[in-house]
Write a structure and sequence with these properties.
Layout lengths: L2 E3 L5 E3 L13 H8 L4 E2 L1 E7 L2 E7 L2 E5 L4 E7 L3 H9 L1 E6 L5 H7 L32 E13 L2 E12 L8 E3 L2 E3 L4 H9 L1
Antiparallel strand pairs: 1-2, 3-11, 4-5, 4-8, 6-7, 7-10, 8-9, 9-10, 11-12
Length: about 200
C-alpha cells in the first residue's frame, strides 16, 4: 500500500484521493483548510488621529436580526484593535469588486492604512454615521462595540448596528485560495431563480 505524509506528519493511503489535508488542530493545517472557503471581503474602519483608518478582514458574520448585531474578528496587536478598544465604535464596509485596491492597501501589515480618499464625505451621506463609510461598498454597517473579548491572538467584537447604508446593488469582492475572485450580481441570480 502506497502511503503519503500529510501536513501534520500523519500517513494516509496515497491512493485515497478524497483527502488532501489530514491534520489535528495545527495552526498551519487550520490556515490551509480555511483558505478553501470563499468569503466576502470587508474593511473595518475606525478613526485614528481623527482620520479614517481601515483594515481588511474576512472574519465577520451576522449574529442576530433583533436587535441587528454582527461580529468581527481583528488581530489584537493591530492599530484597528486599539482604536476599537479605545472608542468602542467601528464600521464594517462590505467591499465591491471595484474596491480591490482598497482591500490590498488595508491588508498590508505595518503599513499606513489611512483611507481619507476612499470615504464618503459626511454631507453626502443620507443619514449620519459615526464611523467611516467607504465609497462604492456593497453595504456599510455603522456599529457600537457592545462586547469585546480576547480569544487567542484576536479580539472578537460584537457590533450593535447603529446605521445601515447600502447603495444600488454592486458585485461583491470575493476571496478564496489566496486570490481575489469574480462574483455575480445578486439581482441576476435572483432573477434567474424565479424564472
Amino acid at each position: 500500500m502506497a502511503m503519503r505524509t500529510t501536513l501534520n506528519g500523519a500517513c494516509v493511503d496515497a491512493h485515497d484521493a478524497r483527502w488532501d489535508l489530514v491534520a489535528g488542530p495545527a495552526p498551519d493545517a487550520f490556515r490551509a483548510a480555511m483558505r478553501r472557503v470563499v468569503v466576502g471581503v470587508a474593511v473595518v474602519a475606525t478613526l485614528r488621529d481623527s482620520r479614517p483608518w481601515g483594515m481588511t478582514v474576512s472574519a465577520f458574520t451576522p449574529v442576530c436580526m433583533e436587535p441587528p448585531t454582527l461580529l468581527i474578528c481583528v488581530n489584537a496587536a493591530t492599530a484597528t484593535a486599539a482604536d476599537i478598544e479605545r472608542d468602542r465604535r467601528f464600521s464594517l464596509n462590505l467591499l465591491s469588486e471595484t474596491q480591490r485596491g482598497v482591500s490590498q492597501r488595508c491588508a498590508q501589515p505595518g503599513a499606513s492604512k489611512y483611507i481619507d480618499q476612499d470615504v464618503v464625505s459626511a454631507h453626502d451621506l443620507p443619514t449620519p454615521a459615526e464611523m467611516p463609510v467607504l465609497l462604492d461598498s456593497v453595504a456599510t454597517f455603522d456599529c457600537d462595540a457592545s462586547d469585546i473579548r480576547t480569544v487567542g491572538t484576536h479580539l472578537v467584537v460584537i457590533g450593535a448596528i447603529r446605521a445601515i447604508l447600502a447603495p444600488r446593488t454592486r458585485r461583491s469582492l470575493l476571496y478564496g485560495q489566496g486570490n481575489y475572485l469574480g462574483s455575480v450580481a445578486l439581482d441576476t441570480v435572483s432573477a434567474g431563480a424565479s424564472a
